[in-house]
Amino acid sequence: MPTVLVTGANRGIGLEYARRYAADGWHVIATYRDPATAEELRGLGVETHRLDVGDFAAIAKLGTRLGDRPIDVLINNAGLYGGEQTFGSVDTEDWMRTLRVNVMGPLKMAEALCGNLAAGRGKTIATMSSKMGSMADNGSGGVYIYRSSKAALNAVVKSLSIDLKPMGIIAFALHPGWVKTRMGGPSSILAPAQSVGALRRLIDNATPAMSGRFYNYDGQEIPW
Ligand SMILES: NC(=O)c1ccc[n+]([C@@H]2O[C@H](COP(=O)([O-])OP(=O)(O)OC[C@H]3O[C@@H](n4cnc5c(N)ncnc54)[C@H](OP(=O)(O)O)[C@@H]3O)[C@@H](O)[C@H]2O)c1
Fold it and tell me: Is any atom of ligand 1 closer than 6 Å to the C-beta of 37?
């Protein structure tokens, strides 16, 4: 039975990943921050661990707790959008917090779990980025916190693809589309099931040629 670990799995896209993988018979290790918001996740009967990805000691502890168990796929999903971020009124404390969660958290997850991933068959790190982090796609400006965090995250993914290649690990960045979640908001276009269904086709069929690249949920490559 293959194993997937998903961060931020108590709601939104992360919960949909947990639901789908569990339904397909995978062993799902799902993390959440607050037990009060994890009832739906717990109802899936998957293995759960409490984890704030901005708490690097907690990430290391989770790595220790998982020991040498093989993990096929790590989905770095947990993320923040950030608050006020228009030109002239960017909340810099919020910016620091968002960078910690969106950029440093995924790197620390990869550091803690690369041994588990190397021992798995899938050897895949799929990181939820956003088109908003693409320089080429930025035609409207603003959104300083979120854009810069996802651009920096993309740089992390690229370096992971190079550094972890000797371990046989594939690392790529994904854009899920505009998805109806708390972050996506009510006007979003895609249901989480549509997005995750498409993303899973990429993740479950990952090849070394995909490593170090950035993909839209439909498989189209996104320029950095
Ligand atoms: N929805 C979209 O249209 C869209 C578009 C592009 C990219 N994305 C990316 O896709 C990913 C999932 O987004 P979503 O739409 O599902 O967002 P969401 O509905 O806001 O859910 C975010 C998830 O991340 C968790 N999280 C936030 N900070 C965390 C932390 N410090 N430690 C651990 N977990 C934390 C949240 O947990 P709590 O419940 O505890 O807050 C929640 O489970 C994100 O990386 C996002 O940037 C989404």
Answer: yes
